[in-house]
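Fig. S4 source data, part A: sequence.
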Amino acid sequence: MALNVVIMAAGKGTRMKSRQAKPLHKLGGRSLLQHVLNAAGQLGADRIVVITGYGAEEVEAAMQAPKLKFVRQMPQLGTGHAVQQAVPALFDDAGAGGTTLILNGDVPLIETTTARALVDACAGQRLALLTVEMDDPSGYGRVVRGDPVGRDAHEGGRVHAIVEHKDATAGQRQIREIYAGMMAAPTAQLKRWLAGLENDNTQGEYYLTDVVEMAVADGVPVVTAHPRSLDEVLGVNSPAQLADLERRYQRKLAEALMEAGVRLADPARFDVRGELVCGADVEIDVNCVFEGRVELGDDAKIGAHCVIRNAIIDAGAVIHPFTHIDGDLLGVKVGAGALVGPFARLRPGAELGPEVHIGNFVEVKNSTLARGAKANHLAYLGDAVLGERVNYGAGSITANYDGANKHRTVIGADVHVGSNCVLVAPVTIGDGATIGGGSTISKDAPAGQLTVARAKQVSIAGWQRPLKKKK
């Protein structure tokens, strides 16, 4: 039985007050539409059709999913008109009871299990609607059962229509069961119903919900399915709604992590904008942000106000407060028992071995530090290799860029680099060497020796500092 998934994502989102198309706004580090695609992608659909409109080129370029096809709705004349544009792209397997599932690109927290429940309720033979009861159903289409005015009949009757809020009578607006904007329908019948839609309503639009009355008239059973949580059906139409949904999403992630044993100092001050994988006994302090894919090993501790992106933090490592780790495409690796921060910065390609110490205001980029190496204060390491137990002094830097190309600095095991040194790459410092403080090293330094490269100190008697000229 063929399964089509249609996702409506053509709207501009006027209330977002943004030039960006609404489906591209981010929730938890992913676009609204990508969240829906991720849920749909687990259904095993034969085809996923995304309906675009405003900002279509940008939306289409940003989306990824298997078996994905785009169609455009120009102009936007309602939800029914939108799905009409998808009809030529649908697999029609009427003989085997093919199903088309319709989702919304601005309702990002729909779960695969709920989408699957809709498909199963349809089974290629029934019209299945996703509905939920709300204390304040304003703005939503009401599910009309039995007597459209009587509450008791509504609760126990069969579905025979959906009435949009703007077209509802005063009695119908008292109904608390709303249509959540998602349905599953037999593909062959859906095509026929869509062809018969009319726009004789207050909006002058073609409503997808009108297919309910058509199904009833055709004797097709209309059934309902329900989400596990109200969050699954909440849409985004404004920055305020996006912010509210972000907090709901983050709270859900936080609860799942805490259920698995992660200790969060405050689940209300926690953000995952990608994927966070945690081992046992992980501790995370307040206001930390995790982006891309981050792995935290057993007993890892993350201090307050850290931002960590695309990184692997091994067991027992401690990331002190206000540290910024950005692995970007190359990633960052922090070894077991390492100490990083506070106020440290690890950039793409930084790889710290076990028990490495990176202290305050130290920046590491595209460099490898072996076990026990230390750079505790105010230093820069770029395109460098440090051996075991290196002590890298405060204020020292690797001068890795000559204005056109990057060059590497190799520092052997047990090297001591004094404070305020400049290592001009390419250069190699041999095992056990000592570099005197304030040196500029532009030639290889031999192993086991003290190397000093600085001018002789001179004091000039009678020298006077220039004075400011009086105006």
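Fig. S4 source data, part B ends here. Residues 104 and 281 are 38 Å apart (CA to CA).
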